Amino acid sequence: MDSSQAPLISNSRHDDDAPYDAGLGDESASRDAVGKASSEQPGLFVLILTFAAGISGLLFGYDTGVISATLVSIGKALSDRDLTSMDKSIITSSTSLFALLISPFSSHIADRLGRKRVILYADVLFIVGAALQAVSSTVPLMVAGRCIIGAAVGAASFVVPLYIAEVAPSSYRGRLVTINVLFITLGQMAAYIVGWALSTYASRETGWRWMVGLGALPAGLQGALVALMPETPRWLVKAGRPDEARRVVQKVNGVQGRFDGTADAIIKEIEMEVREEEELRRLQARHASGPWKGLGVWHELLSVGKHRRALAIACLLQGLQQLCGFNSLMYFSATIFSIMGFESPTLTSLIVAITNFVFTLVALVLIDRIGRRRILLYSIPFMALGLLLAAAGFSHLSLEPSPAAQDDDDNAAATATTSTSTTEGERETRPAVVVLVSIMLYVASYALGLGNVPWMQSELFPLSVRSAGSGVATATNWAANFAVGLTFLPLMDALSPSWTFVLYAIVCAVGYGLVWRIYPETAGLSLEEATALLDNGWGVR
Ligand SMILES: O[C@H]1[C@H](O)[C@@H](O)[C@H](O)[C@@H](O)[C@H]1O
């Protein structure tokens, strides 16, 4: 895996003011000229770039969030029958599977053809995937559309943060991680609003087709914006085009067409970094021995104790972010609220997306003050509590797990009417409210901690293994996301909703113990200090 492989990873220098450093390389380099450039106000150009990155997070969020309302609105439109739990699970998880499969390839394309090219290809995939879903008439066609969307999400979630990190001044790179998560949650909220509006006001036949098809619009906008943007200076230098790279740096710094010593210094620094990186790769290849021979950076990652520890922590956090079951709500909350008999399941499930977005915003403000380890240790118990309360609520509800009840809003409304018109039904209202409030508690505590902290993975790894380590951790995230998407509905059928939620609570409890045991506090530390914590052990005091 090369330096550009991992999402949220970039190349160059460490910025002490940027606790969310997106995985930038050479810690030792703090050149004056670069520092000067970094402290400047963002120009219009940089703002456009940030917006472009935002669209990508938005698409990631929209396309993963929209499936919740889509699944309850499809009815018999695919293959002339109701969707089974297995259909729903495959339609949902095919996206994460393809995101997992595609991201390593996109790093090679990004290195060969440039970052911009990957963004454009991803946009094309977003558009094709959206169109295919919108016109699909069978389950396999819908799955094919979701796979194409997955490939787009995988490529975009990898390359856009990289693009911005390589172009923007260092002070902006640092905030990228959280801004990206914020845009993802914004996209999910937008998907839920669109899902609710279309399932309520559009016709039954076409509403869900618009939901999935609308994802093409931001992709088209992003494609048009990206076509106007330059390649990154770092890629241009690597491709032997330093003059073009200099022009881009001048544009970013707002000194286009004038002599600018800062731009020269930055280009020199990039050239140095590119050389250092190549040298490092040669050394790694030469020193590898035994089973790791020829594996280069993998040898370095797996044979050195502190790198292994960093990898264990990063994978633990990413795995936990998904295995705690959050995305089962993101993907299936409308289905859950539908079988609980809520009159408008898509509107009710909007609460999940809004809570997630609002508390991600709160996390932005709190996380540096409280610290990553501490915010996790404070929030995970509340996640477990929310899950257990929801499980208790579910055990007092008589659910209607039949596909007809799940897929038909009218049916769901009928169920709700019946349940509220009888004494039996009135007794059911209270547990339904308990489930809803518990889910909000769970989502809020997730958004404060686990929704964000794992993406700060790159600060655990030293430069030499940063991209490889972050890449593996990101793959862990998609793999666990896939597993949860595929197993949630079958688990609900096999174990009951209560026990499924108890299972996620157990995952949270085990995760809490592991975080407490092996994840040291890195907030407020420079990248050198953070990675040094793992030199001789887990660094937990
Ligand atoms: O950080 C994000 C965010 O928490 C999203 O809401 C979730 O759907 C993603 O899986 C996660 O990676």
UniProtKB/TrEMBL annotation:
<feature type="transmembrane region" description="Helical">
    <location>
        <begin position="501"/>
        <end position="519"/>
    </location>
</feature>
<dbReference type="Pfam" id="PF00083">
    <property type="entry name" value="Sugar_tr"/>
</dbReference>
<protein>
    <submittedName>
        <fullName>MFS permease</fullName>
    </submittedName>
</protein>
<feature type="transmembrane region" description="Helical">
    <location>
        <begin position="467"/>
        <end position="489"/>
    </location>
</feature>
<feature type="transmembrane region" description="Helical">
    <location>
        <begin position="375"/>
        <end position="394"/>
    </location>
</feature>
<feature type="region of interest" description="Disordered">
    <location>
        <begin position="1"/>
        <end position="32"/>
    </location>
</feature>
<dbReference type="InterPro" id="IPR003663">
    <property type="entry name" value="Sugar/inositol_transpt"/>
</dbReference>
<feature type="transmembrane region" description="Helical">
    <location>
        <begin position="346"/>
        <end position="368"/>
    </location>
</feature>
<dbReference type="InterPro" id="IPR036259">
    <property type="entry name" value="MFS_trans_sf"/>
</dbReference>
<feature type="transmembrane region" description="Helical">
    <location>
        <begin position="210"/>
        <end position="228"/>
    </location>
</feature>
<comment type="similarity">
    <text>Belongs to the major facilitator superfamily. Sugar transporter (TC 2.A.1.1) family.</text>
</comment>
<keyword id="KW-0813">Transport</keyword>
<feature type="domain" description="Major facilitator superfamily (MFS) profile">
    <location>
        <begin position="49"/>
        <end position="523"/>
    </location>
</feature>
<keyword id="KW-1133">Transmembrane helix</keyword>
<feature type="compositionally biased region" description="Low complexity">
    <location>
        <begin position="412"/>
        <end position="423"/>
    </location>
</feature>
<feature type="transmembrane region" description="Helical">
    <location>
        <begin position="310"/>
        <end position="334"/>
    </location>
</feature>
<feature type="transmembrane region" description="Helical">
    <location>
        <begin position="118"/>
        <end position="135"/>
    </location>
</feature>
<dbReference type="InterPro" id="IPR020846">
    <property type="entry name" value="MFS_dom"/>
</dbReference>
<feature type="transmembrane region" description="Helical">
    <location>
        <begin position="176"/>
        <end position="198"/>
    </location>
</feature>
<feature type="compositionally biased region" description="Polar residues">
    <location>
        <begin position="1"/>
        <end position="11"/>
    </location>
</feature>
<feature type="transmembrane region" description="Helical">
    <location>
        <begin position="432"/>
        <end position="455"/>
    </location>
</feature>
<dbReference type="InterPro" id="IPR005828">
    <property type="entry name" value="MFS_sugar_transport-like"/>
</dbReference>
<dbReference type="InterPro" id="IPR005829">
    <property type="entry name" value="Sugar_transporter_CS"/>
</dbReference>
<dbReference type="InterPro" id="IPR050814">
    <property type="entry name" value="Myo-inositol_Transporter"/>
</dbReference>
<keyword id="KW-0812">Transmembrane</keyword>
<dbReference type="GO" id="GO:0016020">
    <property type="term" value="C:membrane"/>
</dbReference>
<keyword id="KW-0472">Membrane</keyword>
<dbReference type="GO" id="GO:0005366">
    <property type="term" value="F:myo-inositol:proton symporter activity"/>
</dbReference>
<dbReference type="GO" id="GO:1904679">
    <property type="term" value="P:myo-inositol import across plasma membrane"/>
</dbReference>
<feature type="transmembrane region" description="Helical">
    <location>
        <begin position="44"/>
        <end position="62"/>
    </location>
</feature>
<feature type="transmembrane region" description="Helical">
    <location>
        <begin position="141"/>
        <end position="164"/>
    </location>
</feature>
<feature type="region of interest" description="Disordered">
    <location>
        <begin position="402"/>
        <end position="427"/>
    </location>
</feature>
